[in-house]
Design brief:
About 25% of the residues lie in helices and about 25% in strands. A hairpin with a 2-residue loop joins strand 5 and strand 6. It has two domains: about 180 residues, Rossmann fold, CATH 3.40.50; about 210 residues, Hexapeptide repeat proteins (UDP N-Acetylglucosamine Acyltransferase, domain 1, 3 Solenoid), CATH 2.160.10.10. It is an alpha/beta fold. The chain starts with 5 loop residues before the first strand and ends with a helix. This is Ribose 1,5-bisphosphate phosphokinase PhnN. Keywords: ATP-binding, Nucleotide-binding, Repeat, Transferase.
Length: about 400
């Protein structure tokens, strides 16, 4: 019997020898990737330490999770066990690209499981590699020597792209993001349903788009919700984020866990202030004359002026956020505010134009929350830690889960 492969999204497998900087590239890419890209944390039977921000598991915890089917893929390497949460399968079914640092020994298994497998090999010079192994401080001299001379477990497996990571982390991450953005995408929304945005029933992993809403050239993450009568054009809506009724978003990237109240407008398109007229007959010309074309250059300029909304944000009823604005992680925008300038992480802004009123968290706590990046935890981990989110304050939660 033939098992249908999981698609239409892609599994982007990052491979390369120890010390080439794979985890650093993934961590930097996570800061800049949109919600159509998933970069899950790995479950590893290794204590917290320098380097990768993984989810530490005891051997017993890992075995129980494995037997319960919590991992899509798992492998043994370096005396440790590695697992990738099964939730990535829903990401790929939703058209997202899932990016993971994997052992080359599992590439065959990945190719059998996923419709689109993209293999990216990361390399560096041997001198840089040895220096990075020494710097990260996870191995003694003997372990380093073994890693430097370990043979490739899949030497004949073809790769789709190669990144030479001798430069800066930013340069390497930019190269990785270019590869990721060339992988398959979902460009349409799930089917519309009529349930209320706050109605009974669970939000499915595929998300909900309510009646009367329009999603054009957009990407919707997992567990997202688009309220009745809303209009989204070229919008990336991150996992668990929602907008309530009659929102209007354009040319916008929204992070994960964003809470957008009704009648919010983000990325409102401009009219040409410097021309003789403000009217759109100049760029929507085909509506008025059969022999005239629309002004493609004008629309391209509009699309390039993207608004960015961070993770775990709250935008109040009737607020507006202008094009080119960046709203930091954890920020709050008060009802009716008009935001014309960037909003710092964890700031609360209000007014016309919006100004900082105060900060939700002290700077050192905000920085720790951003480093923790709990919004990247997988669905099962969030459920496991739900009670702590409900009962612990921010400091206690950080103390509990910081690497």
């Amino acid at each position: 019997m033939t098992t249908q492969k999981i698609g239409p999204g892609a599994f982007v497998a990052i491979v390369g020898a120890s010390g080439v900087g794979k985890d650093a590239l993934i961590a930097e890419s996570r800061r800049h990737a949109g919600p159509d890209v998933s970069l899950p944390q790995r479950h590893i039977t290794r204590a917290p330490g320098p380097g990768e921000n993984h989810l530490p598991r005891s051997a017993r915890e890992f075995r129980i999770a494995s037997e319960a089917g919590h991992f899509a893929i798992e492998w043994n390497a370096h005396g440790l066990r590695y697992g990738i949460p099964v939730g990535i399968d829903d990401d790929i079914r939703g058209g997202r690209s899932v990016v993971v640092n994997v052992s080359r020994a599992v590439l065959g298994e990945l190719a059998a499981r996923y419709e689109h497998l993209v293999v990216v090999r990361v390399t560096v010079s041997e001198a840089v590699r040895a220096s990075r192994l020494r710097t990260r401080g996870r191995e003694d001299a003997d372990d380093m020597a073994r890693r430097l001379h370990r043979p490739d477990p899949a030497p004949d497996y073809a790769v789709d792209a190669e990144i030479h990571n001798d430069g800066t982390i930013a340069e390497g991450a930019a190269a990785l993001l270019r590869v990721i953005r060339a992988t398959p995408r979902r460009t349409s929304a799930p089917g519309a349903v009529s349930a209320s945005v706050y109605g009974s029933g669970a939000v499915p992993a595929a998300g909900i788009v309510h009646e009367g809403s329009t999603v054009v050239a957009g990407t919707l993450g997992r567990y997202t919700e688009v309220g009745q009568g809303s209009r989204l054009a070229d919008v990336e809506l991150g996992d668990y984020s929602y907008c309530d009724r009659y929102c209007d978003l354009a040319n916008t990237t929204v992070g994960k866990f964003s809470n957008i109240a009704s009648f919010v407008r983000i990325g409102a398109t401009d009219h040409p202030l410097d021309r003789a007229s403000l009217h759109h007959f100049m760029y929507r010309s085909a509506r008025y004359w059969p022999d005239a074309e629309d002004d493609a250059e004008w629309f391209a300029r509009r699309r390039s002026r993207r608004t960015t909304i961070g993770h775990d944000t709250w935008i109040g009823h009737g607020a507006q956020v202008k094009p080119d604005v960046v709203v930091g992680n954890g920020a709050v925008i008060a009802s009716g505010a008009i935001v014309t300038k960037d909003v710092p992480p964890y700031a609360i802004v209000a007014g016309v134009p919006a100004r900082v009123i105060r900060f939700r968290q002290p700077p050192e706590i905000a920085e720790r929350l951003e480093r923790l990046a709990w919004w990247d935890w997988d669905h099962a981990t969030l459920r496991e830690r739900l009670d702590d989110f409900r009962t612990l304050n921010a400091v206690d939660l950080l103390d509990c889960y910081e690497p």
